[in-house]
Amino acid sequence: MKLYVGNLSFQTNEQDLKELFAQHGNVTDVHLIMDRETQRSRGFGFVTMGSAQEGEAAIGSLHGKLVDGRNLTVNEAKPMEPRRDSRGGGGGGGGGGFRPRR
């Protein structure tokens, strides 16, 4: 079961997450999301537990728990939705397309 872990301290590293979640079962993967430009943690990541039971146990124990001065958010990860253009339309670009009448 893949879990989303949010509101992490910027000092938390992948090893810290693995040790924290290993108390609730087998951790098969840990991925801390890093900022591309600064290479600093963005304050969230994903932990994959060996089974749904272990994932549920981790959620029950760690959601809201104070870790490094922050209350963690832990829940089942949801698939990422496709990005949409903020203007609501398709891609495009360039100067073509709509021109107002004069």
Kindly provide the name of the CATH class: Alpha Beta
CATH superfamily: RRM (RNA recognition motif) domain
User: Cα distance, first to last residue?
Assistant: 59 Å
User: How many domains would you count in the coordinates?
Assistant: 1
Low-confidence stretches: none
Strand content: 25-35%
The helix/strand class is alpha+beta
Biggest pleated sheet: 4 strands, antiparallel
Number of DSSP helical runs? 2
Percent helix among the residues?
A: 10-25%
Rg calculated over all Cα atoms: 19 Å
| Helix/strand order, N-terminal first | EHEEHEEE
State the strand order across the main sheet: 2-3-1-6
Mean pLDDT across all residues, rounded?
A: 88
Task: Describe the global form.
Answer: globular
Secondary-structure arrangement, i.e. CATH architecture: 2-Layer Sandwich
Number of strands: 6
Might you state the CATH topology name? Alpha-Beta Plaits
Structural commentary:
By secondary structure, the chain is an alpha+beta fold. It has a single domain (2-75), classed as RRM (RNA recognition motif) domain (Alpha-Beta Plaits), CATH 3.30.70.330. Helices cover 20% and strands 29% of the residues. It contains two helices and six strands, in the order βαββαβββ. It has helices at 14-22, 52-62; strands at 2-6, 27-34, 41-49, 66-67, 70-71, 73-76. It has a four-stranded antiparallel sheet. Strand 2 (27-34) and strand 3 (41-49) form a beta hairpin. It is globular, with a radius of gyration of 19 Å. 17% of the residues are buried.
